[in-house]
Amino acid sequence: MKYKFDFGALAEYWPQFVDGALLTLEMTVLSTVSGLVVGTLVAIGRRSENKLLSRLCGAYVETVRNTPFLIQLFFIYFGLASAGLRLPVVVASVIAMVFNVAAYTAEIVRAGMDATPRGQLEAADSLGMSLPQIYWHIILRPALERVYPALTGQYILMMLSTSVTSQISAEELTGIANNIQSNTFRSFETFIVVAGIYLLLTLILKAGFWGLGLALFTRRRRLGTSL
Amino acid sequence: MSAVIELKDVHKSFGQVEVLKGVSLAVERGEAIAVIGRSGSGKSTALRCVNRLETIQSGEINVCGHPVHDPKLDVRKLRLDVGIVFQSYNLFPHLTVEENIMLAPVTVKKLRKAEARALAAQALARVGLAEKAQSYPEQLSGGQQQRVAIARSLAMQPQVMLFDEVTSALDPELTGEVLRVMEDLAKGGMTMLVVTHEMGFARKVADRIVYMHQGRVWEVGDGSMLANPQTPELRAFMAHDL
């Protein structure tokens, strides 16, 4: 096999790489925040005593977790377009990502919530706290602390699967890479560079989650023990 | 004088098992009542019915003017008047001692943080743990955790305090420190219903002792009742008390 690497051919494209990486990061942050909020609400809904609400949330979670992300993306972008709702590519992508990751979030967060000792709920109940107060002050933060590694792992996976949105020509990192390699015919080099950038983004994201964890879980920061 | 806690012919079943078979009991304001009896006699269940952690099948329970048996009762109002302390402390592990105590005054009673903090300091001083305000529960011994749990209930300024075997998980030394706090409370005039296996405490502190057996109130009396049981069941029960 004879192949001469020529990364020089990519030099003039670096602003595009940066743009793609930034768009990937923006989509990821937006979907992570929204996905966490929506997913947590779905988890609460699934734990509700209201059977209808609980089943609806369960049906949503199972549907999303048992269909491919690409199909969900096509459904939201092309499906809604043919029904008359034409969304910009990035908007459709982010909606699809939130729709997808919220379902995984819901299951992870639900596991964390279910692990709350019953005695703590009885104590809160006996102090006169309402259900929303109990969720906010007693259940949520320890639940997130328990499942934090699983949760952040899920969001890193989601960041990587933003590459799928290049299929509806979102100009995130993979989309950009496709353009560049078809202009330069330097696909080997292009994808090596892109893989490197994805690695870098993952590290940035991990550092971000680590910092967020420190800010959020005061007890863990001070004592260094797990719940 | 009317009773602050009144149970009338209370029946409670878990599935097919009838745990309370017609329990009646009246507690006056300022009284400390010890409820004793072997495991499974229904004493903890009776206590949990008083603040509606369990619902009853029939009978009446009135607590501080709240009809607890009424399905339409505003449970949160009842709980403002009734504090409870559990065997397993049930502190919130992610909050400091002070935050544990401040939480309900701030969220439920809508006190300002400064007021709640003062209240927490006061409650902690009362249980002798003023210096532990910034600790987390896991940094405390079992006895200290239980005293924090008592302080957390006290900070809500309840009219009645329920204690559900609060020393059963503690060694004798830690049991002593918790019981001393409870004795102070009783002397301060708090209305208390105490489910306990501590016969010494029942004898010394309780105004009246209630012996429960097989889901019924079997015998009621003052401290001398333990020395002179009227029923063979209480006599057998006391035979194990060294």
From TrEMBL, chain A:
Domain of life: Bacteria
Membrane topology reported for the UniProt record: Multi-pass membrane protein
TM ranges: 20-45, 74-99, 191-217
Locations listed in the record: Cell inner membrane; Cell membrane
Domain ABC transmembrane type-1: 21-209
Classification via Pfam families: BPD_transp_1
A Gene Ontology BP annotation from the UniProt entry: amino acid transport
GO molecular function terms attached to this record: transmembrane transporter activity
Keywords attached to this entry: Cell membrane, Membrane, Transmembrane, Transmembrane helix, Transport
Database matches in SUPFAM superfamilies: MetI-like
Any one of the GO CC terms: ATP-binding cassette (ABC) transporter complex
Similarity section: Belongs to the binding-protein-dependent transport system permease family. HisMQ subfamily.
Record-given protein name: ABC transporter permease
Organism of provenance: Azorhizobium oxalatiphilum
UniProtKB/TrEMBL annotation, chain B:
GO MF annotations in UniProt: ABC-type amino acid transporter activity; ATP binding; ATP hydrolysis activity
One Pfam family, short name: ABC_tran
Domain of life: Bacteria
Family matches, as InterPro entries: AAA+_ATPase (IPR003593), ABC_ATPase_HisP-typ (IPR030679), ABC_transporter-like_ATP-bd (IPR003439), ABC_transporter-like_CS (IPR017871), MetN_ABC_transporter-like (IPR050086), P-loop_NTPase (IPR027417)
Record membrane topology: Peripheral membrane protein
ABC transporter domain span: 5-239
Gene Ontology CC annotation, any one: plasma membrane
Keywords linked to the UniProt accession: Amino-acid transport, ATP-binding, Cell membrane, Membrane, Nucleotide-binding, Transport
Cellular location(s): Cell membrane
Family (UniProt): Belongs to the ABC transporter superfamily.
Protein name according to UniProt: Amino acid ABC transporter ATP-binding protein
